[in-house]
Design a protein that fits this description.
Distance between the termini of chain B: 50 Å
Structural class of chain A: alpha+beta
Helix content of chain B: 40-55%
Number of helices of chain A: 3
Strand content of chain A: 25-35%
Shape of chain B: flat
Oligomer: heterodimer
Strand order of the largest sheet of chain B: 1-2-5-4-3
Number of strands of chain A: 4
Shape of chain A: flat
Strand order of the largest sheet of chain A: 2-1-3
Radius of gyration of chain B: 20 Å
Helix content of chain A: 25-40%
Number of strands of chain B: 6
Largest interface: A-B, 42 and 48 residues
Order of helices and strands of chain B: HHHEHEHEEEHHHHE
Largest sheet of chain B: 5 strands, mixed
Structural class of chain B: alpha+beta
Largest sheet of chain A: 3 strands, antiparallel
Strand content of chain B: 5-15%
């Protein structure tokens, strides 16, 4: 949890419930440029495009889990309950 | 030595005017002409200058998290606000101009419990009093003071760094897990919770689940009672969702 910040852009297809992960390493300038391009390519309220950063994609999967969650709503709730320690 | 402020892409007046154009276009659902394109570019450039201050604040947050929690702090991440949520906020809060939005750049830390969250925030406050490279602008306590109707619980600390505002969010593990669950359900079922336009029954359902998590977190109920309570609190949403596949 102490490595340099890695930047990712998550492009989430709301209808398909599918996330596309774009990686930029620690290059925030590149990530910022891509943020605008990807936003322009995914308009019309069908997608969510967000630029995030953390030490790894595994952390992002925990901190931004809704983009990665699978199953029915019931299964999501069940998994949530099962994860409570 | 005080670090230099970032160079804004335009005057605050022009930045706010660009925000106005985005707000107006969203409200009127008008066509996206040249003025809109230019404003969009400026808003994006304004958002981009938050990247470096956000990185610095996130590093500071990591330092204070480690100091407060040793090895027991969990995750830290950061994000630059999505364009549609910037526009939503401008539409939802007509008196707020773009330069006053405090969470264009935001980072978040999760901890095991509330006591550790509070220790980390105290550490940040003490450091600010003794002089640090950021100023605290605001502390919003959504745990004890400003509880939200939907049950959202967290503490937010807004600081000014390199001339712009950055928001730090502090959550316990239980608060974070609840927020992530609610966002998942909101995204998949279109409940409208994030935009503040959900129906009362949905708000009550997630608020009740938040209260279940709070009671479990402070030891008022054990895991068995929590599971029973959550199943009951979330029942209206699950009934609606029956058969709806998330992804």
């Amino acid at each position: 949890m102490t490595g340099p910040t890695q930047y990712f852009i998550l492009v989430y297809d709301l209808a398909m419930r599918h996330v596309e992960v774009h990686e930029y390493g620690d290059d925030i300038e590149q990530a910022n440029l891509a943020y605008s391009t990807l936003e322009d390519e995914h308009t019309g309220g069908k997608y969510e495009v967000v630029l995030v950063g953390a030490d790894s994609i595994d952390t992002i999967k925990r901190t931004h889990s809704p983009y990665f969650s699978t199953g029915t709503a019931t299964e999501v709730v069940e998994a949530f309950i099962a994860s409570i320690k | 030595m005080t670090p230099p402020d970032v160079q804004l892409p335009a005057s605050k007046t022009r930045i706010n005017k660009a925000g106005e154009v985005l707000r107006r276009t969203a409200e009127e659902k008008g066509p996206a002409g040249t003025e809109y394109r230019d404003s969009l570019d400026l808003v994006r450039a304004y958002r981009a200058v938050h990247a470096y201050p956000l990185k610095s604040v996130t590093m500071g947050l990591r330092h204070h998290a480690r100091k407060a929690a040793g090895r027991s702090w969990l995750d830290i991440s950061q994000r630059l606000k999505q364009l549609p949520t910037i526009t939503d906020k401008l539409v939802r809060m007509p008196k707020t101009n773009l330069a006053r939005i405090q969470d264009i750049g935001g980072c978040r830390a999760t901890f095991l419990d509330q006591a550790t969250v509070d220790t980390a925030i105290s550490s940040i406050e003490n450091r600010a009093i003794r002089g640090s490279s950021w100023d605290i602008v605001d502390i919003d306590d959504y745990v004890n003071e400003r509880t939200r109707p939907d049950g959202y619980r967290a503490k937010h600390v807004i600081v000014r760094k390199h001339g712009v505002q950055i928001e730090m969010q502090f959550r316990t593990s239980a608060q974070h897990n609840w927020a992530e669950l609610v966002e998942s359900l909101d995204k998949s079922l279109g409940l409208g919770l994030k935009q503040g336009r959900a129906e009362a029954w949905a708000v009550e359902s997630v608020a009740s689940a938040a209260e279940d998590m709070r009671r479990y977190e402070v030891g008022e109920i054990d895991r068995t009672r929590l599971v029973k309570a959550l199943n009951s609190s979330l029942r209206p949403i699950l009934d609606l969702a029956d058969g709806v596949r998330i992804r």
